[in-house]
Amino acid sequence: MDAVITVSYSELAGSPHIYLKTGYAEVTRELRCAWNDAITLSRELLGWWSGATYYRPHNYLMEGNEPLYNVFATDVKIDPYKSPSTSGGVSYSQAKLTVFYTVRDYFTYVNDNIWTEERLDSVSEFAVLDNRNLFFDTGNDAVPVAGDNVSVPARVERMVDWVFTVHNVPNLRSSMFDLQNGVNNAEISSPSLNLVFPAETLLLGNPTATRELKTTGQNTGGWTMTYRFTYKNNGTFASPKGWNHFARVDGASASGITYERLTNGSVEIPVYPLVNYGDLVEGMW
């Protein structure tokens, strides 16, 4: 749910301060409120839980004809404002809040309480090729690679890790353990990258889970889950050859090495089992 501000406050003269560069913005605001309301206002600006509902951080909307997008409150600094309080038990009557906003463009919401962020990391593996049908040179000068004193040929397989992080997940699921080392049984769409990964091209590695503890009390927060899916495709997006395709050197030609599925002589054998990643987080895909 969008931020809801219930505390009365005013903006000090000279505020806000806005720093812009291409594709990025930082905003600093100086606010004044009652000293007793300073924590409540900070909480409502930064995002908070109320029961089972999560209220998002405050989104800064600049006055004028050109809005700023995805600029959210990230930090608040509280200072006493001028004169001390005259009432007993309270140190000050007014508080000055310095609120810092920055771009958080990874806010792709699965629902009102769960949001995600994504990135791509480079990764590679060292693949050893079957050398039984390979030679150095041709014709009468051909030397079998499988001969003595000849190094085993290898190649570097370039891949990409799709790192998908989900925030405020209420409960861990057994599927995060059960689905490891499986590949996607269907196409998967990335919420923010505008990509559709073909079936069998994403391999789930070891996920990580970090508990998010909140200052708003017990049971106010969830888990941050990070899933690392390794994308491998020796074909194309239109004609994929993913994790269950393997190099077939005996079919190599001047066009290169072919990649095919393995069989037992009768049916195809999925070395990497096909799984449904949609169960990792409800509504994730």
Describe this structure in words.
The protein is mainly beta and 285 residues long. The protein has 2 domains: 9-105, no CATH class; 115-279, no CATH class. It has helices at 38-46, 175-178; strands spanning 9-11, 17-21, 24-34, 48-50, 53-55, 71-80, 94-103, 108-109, 115-128, 135-136, 143-144, 154-169, 183-184, 188-189, 196-197, 202-204, 208-211, 223-231, 246-253, 256-260, 262-263, 268-269, 274-275. The strands form 8 sheets. Strands 8, 9, 12, 16, 17 and 18 form a 6-stranded antiparallel beta sheet that branches. Strands 1, 2, 3, 6 and 7 form a 5-stranded antiparallel beta sheet that branches. It has a two-stranded antiparallel sheet with strand order 4-5. The chain is elongated. The mean pLDDT is 83.
Question: Sheet with the most strands?
Answer: 6 strands, antiparallel
Q: What is the approximate shape?
A: elongated
Helical run tally: 2
> Helix proportion of residues, in percent?
under 10%
CA-based gyration radius: 28 Å
**Number of distinct beta strands:** 23
Q: Look at the helices and sheets and give the structural class.
A: mainly beta
SSE order, as H and E? Answer: EEEHEEEEEEEEEHEEEEEEEEEEE
Number of domains: 2
C-alpha termini separation = 20 Å
Q: Which whole number gives the mean pLDDT?
A: 83
Uncertain regions spanning at least 5 consecutive residues: none
Strand content: 35-45%
